[in-house]
Amino acid sequence: MDPPRDLVAWLKRKYPRPTVAEDWLRDCYAHMITERNLRDEDEIYQAVEDELLRSDLCDSMLPGTGLPENINELDGAPIPGSPIMVEILSMEEVGHSAFSLLNVMEARSDDEKERAKREAAGEEEDEDAEQMIKPKFPRSMLRFLLSDGFNTIQAFEYAPLPEIEFGETPLGHKVNHCFLPWTTCSFVSRGSRPSFSLHPLLLAVLFILQ
């Protein structure tokens, strides 16, 4: 089932790069109509967008329409054009020792085990337990491996990204990636404020999508 042209144009305006694959969009739209029985245009648009942001970009996007093939050879040259949507393939905290991260990981594991035991025993958590906060990883600088589904690039957190939390934000999280040579960008997506990430000789602005 072919999607309406207005939907195709809307997605192109909102997510210009990479290009959404026609066959993926056709199948997704057909699913919304035949399986989920959606009829309201706004609901269909929102459902398709949500599905896109949950998808693996190698399935939903066309190769060669996002990051340049020679992205790691540009040596600081700007990438012209509109922002590029990428997904997080990996995330590491590089500003703290592996030992400190391991301690937090073990504390979080113990916390989850205790909660699971209480749940299995049918015990209700008291007020003190409910107010307990899961141990958080220390935060200094995150290193990311980002992908448009076909090409990858490494990026570092240059200023805090409060929308992304190590140990909580899932891999596959989508961001809009705008590359500029040592300058800033003023775009905002879904109300998030701009934050900056450093690629060798490049500043990359990340806008949180999902």
From TrEMBL:
One of its GO terms (cellular component) is RecQ family helicase-topoisomerase III complex. Residues 110-132 are annotated as: Disordered. Residues 11-60 form the RMI1 N-terminal domain. Residues 110-121 have a biased composition (Basic and acidic residues). Pfam families: RMI1_N_C (PF08585), RMI1_N_N (PF21000). Residues 67-175 form the RecQ mediated genome instability protein 1 OB-fold domain. One of its GO terms (biological process) is double-strand break repair via homologous recombination. Transmembrane segments: none annotated. InterPro entries: RMI1_N, RMI1_N_C_sf, RMI1_OB. Belongs to the RMI1 family. This is RecQ-mediated genome instability protein 1. It comes from Cristinia sonorae.
